[in-house]
Amino acid sequence: MRFLDDDEELNPIVSAVNLVDVFLVIIAALLIALAQNPLNVFSSDDVTVVKNAGKPNMEVIIKKGKEIKQYKSTGDIGSGEGMRAGVAYKMADGSFVYVPEDDKEGSSATTSNK
């Protein structure tokens, strides 16, 4: 029974128990932070996250249900496949006028309000 007579301050097991308690608190805090992450795979919320908005290395992450898609910017503004279809003008009253470029059927303009 000599073990029971030892002083608690000199016992290394007591400090090990305190370390285990500290690590349990840290793990609990990390689990709470993980559960509150908007891209949590366990939630079924629809979330859109934009990283580095407006910069050449911009990324858009879209989560619908359990499916996550990631889109990365190439850094090129206005690039892509397609052709120019016409010109849009904003009028003084706030409406827009669209003028097609290759108008073979006549010269008609399409207008729309804000």
Automatic annotation (TrEMBL):
<protein>
    <recommendedName>
        <fullName>DUF2149 domain-containing protein</fullName>
    </recommendedName>
</protein>
<dbReference type="InterPro" id="IPR018676">
    <property type="entry name" value="DUF2149"/>
</dbReference>
<keyword id="KW-0812">Transmembrane</keyword>
<keyword id="KW-1133">Transmembrane helix</keyword>
<dbReference type="Pfam" id="PF09919">
    <property type="entry name" value="DUF2149"/>
</dbReference>
<feature type="transmembrane region" description="Helical">
    <location>
        <begin position="12"/>
        <end position="34"/>
    </location>
</feature>
<keyword id="KW-0472">Membrane</keyword>
